[in-house]
Write a structure and sequence with these properties.
- Helix content is 28%, strand content 24%.
- The chain is built from 14 helices and 21 strands.
- The longest helix is centred in the N-terminal third of the chain and has 14 residues.
- Strand 10 and strand 11 form a beta hairpin.
- Bound molecules: flavin-adenine dinucleotide.
- The site of flavin-adenine dinucleotide has 35 residues, from strand 5, helix 5 and strand 12.
């Protein structure tokens, strides 16, 4: 039986939707509409980061684009608070809202790979491991995140980096077309030729411009890669980071290689070099040899493996249900003093689940101008991620404090900006603007055009028309 539902409005007030209104929405969608009284509600509102525990008034579990149209039109007509969930893997937890309407896309997992055109249409509920499964059947892939459980939607809309970034650019650089329902309840296709401004904004502007119902990606021939971890004791961290810094800047673009200051399963603090070479395997052996032969590794697990294999390596380290507080910064440079600061603060980590990751991009991602897409940080040399992760809520302040201290310690070498996809729920307006960087004024103008009432506000939000 459908009952009245109290819901949060865009004016931040509560109002009652009568039972007939909710029943009408239910009748219009092919998927389902859940309230707190319905079976499956708690599972549907759950997201990856256990720090976020929000209770939407309504969850529309969309079965397809038609349901997205209904949900957006309902939200716009009723002027209710809206959140949009793709993979539910964002640390800020913007996929779910308190008291509003959650548009849940997680059941929309359709994908059609065209091996001849080397392209795929993919729906926004897909996770990277599902996307890779389908494209790998044809020996194809595109740049996606390094954890298979991450959603393709949020990641791509914010930029998207992963093992193929240096060879093939960001995930958003590989978009050929996007189908989106905008705040006026209209379905639009955005490509470089059609709705070009919208297409530009969707490649880095996050969830600000509408609800994406399908992405068309360019695919590349990628099947077996030379990839895996080389692990050293933490005592070797300074030497390894300096060596890696000098090595990676001249390495071929087929190689993407990150550094992780992590804790091994046996409790030993270590430094891990995680690498993926996506070109000729023999050439990869030659390229990776200096990295593998430097120092005295505890483990060298680099070997030819299917691309989906390396995509699966990090998943177990980031399970659903842990508490997470992350910080991100783009670094202008990585001098020895910065290396010392990174290692010193990583060594102070209080949770064996926490990690500090140094990523170097360059390559294809850096050849585009900052204003080619909404994602602007093409010239940044390094990206540092401080990943606070733990299980016990009583320890929140300890691990949050550690992440913040570590983030402060690298400030002298950083640009103001963080990677938008890694911002937490406490980022603040200036950090959000810095994350959009030089493209903020154009994004704000386009936000005013496509979403003047800021219907899509539960994201790293761009205020409509605010260009100062
Ligand atoms: P969700 O939480 O579902 O969505 C996040 C936001 O994206 C939503 O609030 C909404 O604003 C928007 N959104 C989602 N779907 C849509 C849609 N269809 N239409 C419009 N807006 C939408 N990023 C990388 O680039 N590379 C990585 O390797 C990487 N690894 C990660 C590993 C882990 C363990 C985690 C937690 C995150 C990682 N990220 C990585 C960050 C990731 O890009 C973001 O968290 C991203 O938001 C996840 O997308 P999602 O769809 O799973 O998230």
């Amino acid at each position: 039986m459908t009952m009245n539902v109290e819901i949060m409005t865009l004016a931040n007030t509560k109002r009652t939707l009568d039972a007939a209104t909710v029943a009408d929405l239910r009748a219009r969608v092919r998927g389902s509409v859940l309230t707190a009284a319905d079976a499956g509600y708690d599972a549907a509102r759950r997201i990856w980061n256990a720090m976020i525990d929000k209770r939407p008034a309504l969850i529309v579990r969309c079965a397809g684009a038609a349901d997205v149209l209904e949900a957006v039109r309902f939200a716009a007509t009723q002027q209710v608070l809206v959140s949009v969930r793709g993979g539910g893997h964002n640390v800020a937890g913007t996929a779910v809202c308190d008291g509003g309407l959650m548009i849940d896309l997680s059941l929309m997992k359709g994908i059609q790979v065209d091996p001849v055109a080397r392209a795929a249409w993919a729906q926004p509920g897909l996770l990277w491991q599902e996307f890779d499964h389908e494209t790998q059947a044809f020996g194809l892939a595109t740049t996606g995140g390094v954890v298979g459980e991450t959603g393709i939607a949020g990641l791509t809309l914010g930029g998207g980096v992963g093992w193929l970034v240096r060879k093939y650019g960001l995930s958003c650089d590989n978009l050929l077309a996007v189908d989106v329902v905008t705040a006026d309840g209209q379905f639009q296709r955005a490509t470089p030729e059609e709705n070009g401004d919208l297409f530009w904004a969707l490649r880095g502007g996050g969830g600000n411009f509408g609800v994406v119902t399908a992405f068309r990606y360019r695919l590349h021939p990628v099947s077996t890669v030379l990839a895996g971890l080389v692990i050293h004791p933490r005592d070797a961290a300074r030497d390894m980071i300096r060596f890696h810094r000098d090595f990676i800047t001249t390495a071929p673009e087929e190689l993407t290689s990150y550094i992780g200051l992590i804790t091994a399963p046996d409790g030993q603090p270590v430094i891990a070099l995680a690498s993926c070479y996506c070109g000729d395997l023999g050439e990869g052996e030659r390229v990776l040899r200096p990295l593998r032969e430097f120092g005295s590794p505890l483990i060298d697990d680099v070997k030819p493996i299917p691309y989906a294999g390396i995509q699966g390596v990090f998943g177990p380290a980031f399970p659903w249900g842990n508490r997470n507080y992350w910080k991100s910064r783009f670094l202008r440079e990585l001098p020895d003093a910065a290396v010392d600061a990174v290692v010193e603060h990583a060594n102070r980590g209080k949770s064996p689940l926490s990690a500090v990751v140094l990523e170097y991009y360059g390559g294809a991602a850096s050849r585009l101008a900052a204003d080619t897409t909404a994602f602007p940080h093409r010239a940044a040399a390094y990206h540092i991620l401080i990943l606070g992760q733990w299980r016990d809520a009583a320890e929140d302040s300890v691990h949050v404090g550690w992440a913040r201290d570590c983030w402060e310690a690298v400030r002298p070498w950083s640009s103001a900006a963080a990677y938008m996809n890694m911002l937490g729920d406490d980022a603040g307006a200036q950090a959000v603007r810095d994350a959009y960087g030089v493209n903020y004024p154009r994004l704000a103008a386009l936000k005013a055009r496509f979403d003047p009432n800021n219907l899509f506000r539960l994201n790293q939000n761009i205020a409509p028309g605010e260009i100062q």
